[in-house]
Every structure is written in C-alpha cells, then in structure tokens.
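RETRY 2/3 - previous attempt timed out on the joint model. Re-submitting the same 749-residue input unchanged.
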Amino acid sequence: MTPPDNRQAVERLVGQLFDGSDPKAAAAKLCRLLRKDPALAERYAECVELHALLEARHATTLLPLEGHAAEASRGAEPAPDPQRGACGAEMAELWGLFDEAAAEIQRSVTKSTLYGGARLTRGLRASAWLAVAGCLLAVAYSAALFGARDGGVLAGAGGGREEAIGVLSNASGAAWGNEGWDASRSGAVPRRLVAGQELSLQRGVAELTLTSGVVVVMRGPAELDLLSPMRVRARRGAVRARVGESARGFVLETPTTEVTDLGTEFGVDVDQQAGTTDVVVFEGRVDLQYVDRSGTAADRRNATRRSAREDIRLLRSGEGLRVDPDGATSRIVSIHADAYPASAGPGPLDPRPPLIRRVWDNLRAPQAAQYYQISRGGLREEARAYVDRFHQWNGLKATGIPAYLLGADYVQTFNADKWEADVEIRVELAAPARLYVMFDRRLDPPAWLTDNFADTGDKIGVDEDYRRVGMARGGFGPAVSIDTVHDIWVRDVPSPRVVTLGALPMQELAVSMYGIAATPLDTGVARGRPSTPSAPGALALTPKPLNDPHPLLTTTPGA
Amino acid sequence: MTQPRANAEKHPPDAPATAGVTDEFVRRLTECQNRLYVYILALLPDPDRARDVLQETNVVLWRKADQFEPGTSFQAWACKVAYYEVLTERRRRGRDKLLFDDSTMELVADAATKRLESHDERAVALDECLKRLDQQQRSRLHDRYGPGGSVQLAAQRAGRTPGSIAVTLHRIRAALLRCIEGKLAKELAT
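RETRY 2/3 succeeded.
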C-alpha cells in the first residue's frame, strides 16, 4: 500500500515539473520515487492528465457578451474627414500584398479542431503542430472522409447512407436544442451532418467542418441551417467561417444578407430581435450583399437581382459592417476578438470582464468599414499589432515582452493612421486600468503623451517582416527580426472613463503607429505594475489629470 | 499566428491518402487526440515537445492507416505508435535532454494506458469541479493556463512571487484531484 505522503509527493513533483524552475531535478526525484514504488505511476499519470485538461480548458476564452458582439457606429461617429482618402493608393498597394500574405498563411495554417489547437501562445511549436494537424484534418475531411468537394457520399460507407455535407468536429460547453445531441463529453465529437439539417446551439461553442473544407464555428445561442457544403444560413447568433482557396464562393446567408467568400476568414452575428447582421472580415475578402427576404418569392428574386446590381459591397480584412433590416449599413467601430471564437475550445473560465470596452476615432467616414480589434488578454509574443498589417509584437530581448504586459488586453490599431495628423483615438475603459501606449521611439513624443503618460523605460519590438515569416523557425519569438522599437508609456486611470490619444508628430521617416494595451488597476495593490528594475518611472507614477479635448464625446461609465 | 512554411510543406494537403484512411479511421483518430496527448505528455512531460510528438504520431498513424485492424483497439494501436515516436524524439534530442530512463518510461506507459480508460469520465468530473472554485482560484488558473499564461504572469497579476503562486496552484490542483476522485467514486457507488 502506497503511503499517502508519497502520493502527495508525486503531486508536488508533477507541479514542479510543469511550473517549477528546474523540471530536470523534479523528474530525477520522480524517477527515484517511481522506481521505489511503481504503484505511484498511476498517480503520476493522473496528475499529468489534470495538467493537460487544465491546459485544454483554458486554451480559449470567451467574452461574456450579451447580444451583439460589436459596437456599431451609427449616430456615434463624427463627420467624415475629406482627407481620409489621401492614402488610398498606398493602401490599395498594401492590400494586394496583404491578401497575398493572407492567402499564404491561410494555406499553411489551418487552425485545428484538435486538442490544444487553440493555444497559440507557444508560438512556433504550436503553429507547427497546428499546421500538420490542420493538414491532416483537411486531407481527412475533404479527401478521404467525404470524397468530392461538393459533398460526395462518405467514403467507405455502405450503400443507402444519407449524403453527408460535413461533421460536427468539435464542441465545448455545448448545450443543443437538437434532440439527442449530448455534447457534455470533452474533446472532439465527430457527428455526421447532412444537408437540410437545422442546428440550434443554446450555449457554448461548436465547430463544423464541411466537405468543402470550410470550417464554421458557432457561438451559442445560435441557429444555423446547413443548406449545402457551399451554403449555410445563420438565423441567429455569432458564426465564424474559415474558407480555404478550394471553397471560394462559399455563401453564408443571414435574414438580410448574403456574404460570398472570396477566400477568407470572416464572421457574421445575427441579432434576431433587432433584425441586424454584423459582418466582419478577419482575413481576405468577401462580397456583402443586402437581400430583402420580405414579400413574395418573386419580389425577393427581383430584389436580389436589383441588389446584386447595386448593392454588392466588397469588404476586406479589418473591415466590418452592420446591416439593418432595411439594408442601411453602418460601420462597426470595434470588435472583441473573442466574440467570434476561432475554434471550439473549452468553455468560458476567465472571470474578468474586458477592460477595454470600446475604441473609436475621429477619422473614418461613414462609408468606411474598418474596425479596431480588441483582444482580451491577447497581448503576447507574436500578437498581431495592427488591423491592417501582419506585423507582430515581440520582446526585444530573449526574455520577451515585459511580464506586466503579457496577457494584457490590447487594441489592434491601424498602422496607416501614422500618416493622419489629426487622428484622435478614444479608448473606453470599463474598469480602473493601467493604460499603456507603445510609441515608436524614433519619434519625438508628442505633448499628449508626455503630459499624461510616463515613460516606463521599457521597450517592445515590432516584427514587420511578414514576408519572411514563413521561412524558418528562427524568425519567431522575442529578439528575432525586430524591425522597430517602441517605448512603453503608462498612465493609471483609476475610474472607468474614455481616454483620448492623439496623433504621431509629422515626420519624413517611415514610422509605425502606436499600440494600446491595458491591465487591471487594483485600487489597493497596483496589479500588473511594471516591477522590473528598468522601470523606475512607473513605480512612482502619479498620472497628471487628463486633459480630454473632447469632453462631450466621453461616454458615461457603464453606458 | 504565423507558421514556418518548411513545416507546412513537409505534409502538403495533396499528400497521398493511404488506403486505410476511412470514415471510421478519421473518426477514431479525431476522438483519441485528447487521450493521445495525455499519454505522450506523461512520457515526455514537456507540453511543447509533447505536442511535437503528437503531430509526428498523427502523421505516422495516417501513413499506416491500412495497418490498423478494424475491431481492435484503435487507442492501443495509436499509443503504441506514440510510444515509438517518443523514443524517436529521445534519440533525436540526445540523451542529455531525457527526463525519464527506459524502465521508468515503460512503467509510466503502462500506468498511463490504464488511466486513459477513464479519461472521459475524469474530464467531465473536472468540469464539475472547476465550477466549485471561487473567483480568485479561477483567476489563478486562468492566468497560469490561459492564453499567454504562465506562473510568472499569475504571480504578477496577484502581486506575489512565482514561488508562492506555484504553491497556490499546487493546492488548487490537489483540491481538483480530490474532487474528481470523489465524483468518480460516487458514480461507481451508484
């Protein structure tokens, strides 16, 4: 009989193995213990299993959002800026480049439905794993499991089976309105899906892989009709679709729109009550078309034709629009990254509400469609820095991004805004926060920064060379191929409010737009405080009162 | 979010699908990923390396799909392949990186295989047990295991030292283990 002391010793050593500074020593001790008492091996296996399960349970987090995933801009936006189009040519050229890069990345990285697939924090290794797992799945699902692209009969299946158009490849915390769909078990839940099937997900996240290779992730409450491998109807809720080259032309329809994919990753969020559809593009491009589904079938056909002629709108990576029941569109100013889960990871365990509630600016005209992306807890190595570029935040030294910024909420801004002399970005904080601005150090810091923020003395890098990204492992992680260096500025915002940030000083240099991040500010002990010796300024930081030049635009906390 | 191209090209999407890759095979392969990862992690307690080995194992299983005999245990077959992949990884990385010696590996492999039989039940029990944690304990776990998480981050967020957070995490995990055991025992009894 194994003494309880030894079982506890195994628990402790496994903890040291995964959490300690010297895993080798812990392993050596474990070896000795297991040799002495082989019965302890099972306890060891249990402890490892728990660690793996906890990893999986926390691999993705969901935002406890109510209703719509995004804030639409209608009525909240200032007048259009006639100067906005000045960078059109530059943007068009860059977009071409980005699309190419996006397609490349899309080809090589297909996010996995498998264990730990959503955990990208390990950067390189996780990515490598994802690629192979993704390839496996792509091959598995498209080639072997289903046969032809347009929904061949399942290979290896006997005659008389209903034609499958996909599988329910993963689910997490899922409660189904569909009878007999029990998804309480963890992990992958392969389940055959056929054309005409109506899915009703009451809560949780579910991932469908269609025979066309399209991966659809739905976040409950959501209702989805499977029409064919190339056409899905979302009646309610947030749905994200990842569409490879082979499935270009895939259509996601909603009560008021048809979104036709042009090789991309995009999301829709249908608010059944309001009758609105939000469409946001994460990578690539889609055609967005308003469809009036009221009236007779003939009316609808005519309306569709008319709409096809007049109202097709091309949306690109970083753009999003809200479509009203009458077809009117408004810009989606900011979205929360985890409102559209990229995979059916485990359920929501992060108890923290988002710190950054909303971000908007004074520039974008109503006909513009670009959104700021807010990632809760998303700042880490390789985190995408800008909505309109593939650049990434990375630590300058091998030690990585300063610890106090790891896991911070952050905003993907528009790098193209570096040219905008009058840009003002407003950040609405939902709770007391320590607000960080990562500012290109080649520039003289402007007054709005120096007056309200303190320089921590710490730095963070931007890896700009996305074209080199696919080349070698060595191109990843901190201190590798850093192109620009940003100083980290900080200020404490003790109560929820809107903070306005300004423009970059005008210059001839090619520079980078600043980044924005926030960590919780504990009114007692200052959490997330920069504590490295190189951050003397932050320790004694007494932020000056913010002189908000636009007090009228400041929204009421909690509104 | 990016990916070394060399790796992607190693297993291109148009790689020949072997004869044994059937509907059933894919379902089983997908189903056993979680358990396979736990098995590999037990043999190679380094999450990054364990994921690498899992991916290699998947590729081998894929290529050897026709060698799987329907009606036999897929998991046992997959674990056997995974075991050899761990050995290959050990050879590749050199003995200096070894955590376990041969005899311990065998011992752990046997124990892990046995434990995997109740993996799904334990996973469900864990979900229940996680609900019993208080807000602060959940925060600690999230800071440790969530995106970008680490002991260092959890310590930073809590305003404590990594050592003391490691102790807290150990206590939370110990409580979860007891809770899972209690739930399984209760299920057995009813």
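The radius of gyration of chain B is 19 Å. Closing ticket.
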